[in-house]
Design a protein that fits this description.
- This protein is mainly alpha-helical and about 220 residues long.
- Helices cover about 60% and strands about 10% of the residues.
- It has helices spanning about 10-15, 20-30, 45-60, 65-75, 80-85, 100-105, 115-120, 135-150, 155-180, 185-210, and strands spanning about 5, 35-40, 40-45, 95-100, 125-130, 130-135.
- It has a three-stranded antiparallel sheet with strand order 1-3-2.
- A hairpin with a 2-residue loop joins strand 2 (about 35-40) and strand 3.
- It is elongated.
- The mean pLDDT is about 85.
Length: about 220
């Protein structure tokens, strides 16, 4: 297990490549969490260092300090990874760990406090220390691809919420069908059949929609 490191203010500022005055300013703006106090000495740790490096990266990408403060607040009050994953990791989806600056790089200009909160509410994102965890590599890739095509992230998330409702209904339909004729342990073995039905029906539905042309 890695030993937790702690730093005095001057050492933390040096490691982060900023001045002590800037560090104090960030602390006053609540861009970083309060330090641990030991008498009159303030001790900072690697979480503070990671946050300072994130702030620097976001500033380089054109975010303002006000915007970063709002993002930090959404980050600090978001769902943690335990809430996101529930009793365990998804059985077929692969969660992805991201730093806040890596998320900002994937969705240039679209990572707003509102979109971050919406993604956390939807269950796409959770927090784990100084990292974000996206619940599905496939959903992350599709979302960023849609944004690159010019679709606002807010609308992608709204569509995701609607898809979630339909997906829950389809899962219930499939589970009810199987459980009427087989024990619950068969659900996992037969789930690829449900996925194939949904993928085929969606493909056919898209064919029908494209044949209709513009409405």
């Amino acid at each position: 297990m890695t030993e937790k490191r702690e730093y005095r203010m001057e050492e933390l500022a040096r490691l982060a490549g900023i001045t002590v005055r800037t560090l104090r300013f960030y602390r006053e703006r609540k861009l970083i969490p309060p330090p641990r106090r030991e008498g009159r000495i303030a001790w900072y740790d690697d979480h503070h260092l990671a946050r300072l490096r994130t702030i620097a990266a976001l500033l380089d990408r054109g975010h303002t300090l006000n915007g970063i403060a709002e993002l930090a607040d959404a980050f600090d009050h978001g769902r943690d990874v335990g809430d996101l994953l529930g009793l365990g990791e998804p059985t077929e989806e692969t969660p992805v760990r991201l730093t806040p600056e890596e998320l900002a790089a994937r969705f240039e200009g679209e990572v707003t406090p509102e979109n971050l909160a919406a993604a956390m509410e939807l269950g796409y994102l959770g927090t784990d220390g100084d990292e974000l965890v996206h619940i599905s590599h496939r959903l992350l890739e599709v979302s960023s691809a849609l944004v690159r095509e010019g679709i606002p992230l807010g609308e992608v998330l709204q569509a995701g919420a609607r898809v979630r409702e339909h997906a829950d209904a389809l899962a219930e339909l499939f589970a009810d069908l199987i459980l009427r004729h087989a024990p619950e342990r068969e659900l996992h073995r037969l789930r690829p059949l449900a996925r194939s039905v949904v993928e085929a029906e969606l493909s056919l539905a898209l064919d029908r929609r494209m044949r209709k042309g513009p409405e």
